[in-house]
Structure formats: C-alpha cells, structure tokens
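Hello,

I think I submitted the zinc ion job twice by accident. Can you confirm which output corresponds to this input? Input:
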Amino acid sequence: MNHTEPKVSATIDLLADGKHHGHLIIPHSRNDSGWGAVHLPIVSIRNGAGQTMLLTGGNHGDEYEGPIALMKLARTLEAGGIKGQVIIIPALNYPAVLNGSRLSPIDGVNMNRAFPGRRDGSVSLMIAHFVHEKILPLADVVLDIHSGGKTMMFSPFACYHRIPDAEVMERAKQAMLAFGAPISLELVELDAEGMLDTEVEEMGKIFVGCEIGGGGTSTPETVLITEIGVRNLLAHFEIIDEKPISCEDRGLPPTRLMHMPDSDCYLISNDAGIYETLIDLDESVKKGDAVGQVHFLEKLERQPVVYCAGRDGTLIGRTHKTLVGIGDFLGMIATEM
Ligand SMILES: [Zn+2]
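Support: Only one job matched these inputs. Its output is below.
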C-alpha cells in the first residue's frame, strides 16, 4: 500500500490539453452504500503554455454565487478560447452544497478550516488533502468564491490578505482590483488557520477571495458581479483575451479600496436574544454609533443591549440571522484606504 498518495482519485488527467469533465472520487463507505464513494464534479480546460487558475465555489454549501457562476463558465469556456489552464470546482464541499448547509452533513467539517487535509481523514479532509497535494501545485492563482451563507450578509467585495511576501501580496492586490467588485478589501481574518486561502498563500501563490452577498440565496446583481469578476480575473492573467469590465464601465462608482486596521472592525455578540439591525450595509458609521441591539424576550422589563461601532468606517457585513447567540458575528466595519 502507498500511504502517502491521496486516497482520492480524479477521473480526468489534470495535465492533459483540451476540455475534460470528470469527478474526484472520494471513498465513502457507509450504512446505505457499503462500497460507496462521493463523486465530486471537476472540469479542467487546458491549452498549452500560460497561467493556471483554480476557481472554486461551494467551499461553504449555502453560498450560491460561486456554484452558479462556475457552472455557467464550465459549460461555455472552451480550450480554444484560452491560453494556459482553468480548473473549475463549482462545489468544493459537494456534500454540503447538496445539503444546502455551510458544513458537510457527512462529517460536520467546515471545508475552509480543513486544509491541508488528511489522506486518511473524513470525506472533507480527504477532499482538502487532494486539492492541497494534487491541484494547488499546478495553480499560479486561486479564486475561492464565497458569500455570507444563511447567517451573514455582505456588501459585495473581493479581497486579499496582508502576507509577508510583499511582491506576491502586490500581485494579489492587483488581481483583486482586476476582479472589479464594488469594494476591494484588504481583509483581516478572524480565524485563518486551516483555510484554503492560507495554504495557497503559504505556497507562495496568488490568492483572491470574495464575499459577494449572502442570506443563503443569490440575486441577479450578485451573480453578475461574480461572473464579471471571474472573467476579469481570467483576462488579468491573460488566460482569455478580453477587455476587463470595470465598475465604471457598468455605470457604477469606481471600486472602493478599503481595509480593516484591527479587530475593532468586528462586532461580536456577548448576548443571546433577538437582534435588531439599526443601520444597513454600506452606511457610514462613526465610532460609538449604535449598529444594532439585542432584545430579551424572556425579560420584557430589561432594556436591549446596544452594540456600537468600534471605529469610523462603513458597515460592509452584518448578521443575516436575527436570533443571535453569544459569540455570533454581528457586523464588520471597513475604512477607506
Ligand atoms: Zn464562505
């Protein structure tokens, strides 16, 4: 037995020229299928020399702009129309996407905390391991498409992270700007360990992320932002020969370059109750402004607890759910760079 190679296999050759639809086969022996497996869809489109881009959606199973935009791209992009390679995985956590849940129903794992994975781990860990061992080494750039899912809502942004390698960081920043989202954000993560983002960056490759909308649905606008962003990124890396479409080209204000100077940008609940949003996304706030308040249904005499902005800026993310608990995300404030 080879105990170093992934237990996951691909039905297509990721090094072959041409367009190939196939699956990653993840062994999944279970009560209702003794010798069963999960078949996770993947498309590889390759045409000679050039940059290789990995496009992933459905890292969380209740975020839909990525899967929709990438399924459409997988149907329409042909090898003759590109230079280099595009690897498309519309549903990275495929069992979670089929279940409409953030986490996998098989093992309860958050795919974006599962990297670099384990060859003999649960289904999510085996997927992460294969991506880490067999796909990331091929990629020059990775775009992982997220939105808020059922519990969060974001003002659409593309993002990059501050990383030690200034040259790679600058290239990631330029790629993020090329995406052309309404907001371009230098993002501070609350919990970066185990993320696909972190693994890509530690390999010295370019990572671009995005949070396009949320609420466990999509809108025509959030899907359009995603589709334009994907094509803009393919054009930026000269994989397709197209003129990028900027916000201004669409008659919108130019992308707002923003950042999150410290953890004061996040509002986290210290209470369990019913959350009332007092200001909406894209509104400006001053430090100390009330952003929302938690009400207590079981103690009607009790005043609600007001949550205030920790700094001046713009509210670009908020909870979508109303029934909040201690430790839940309530909001996120970014400032112009
Ligand atoms: Zn997500």
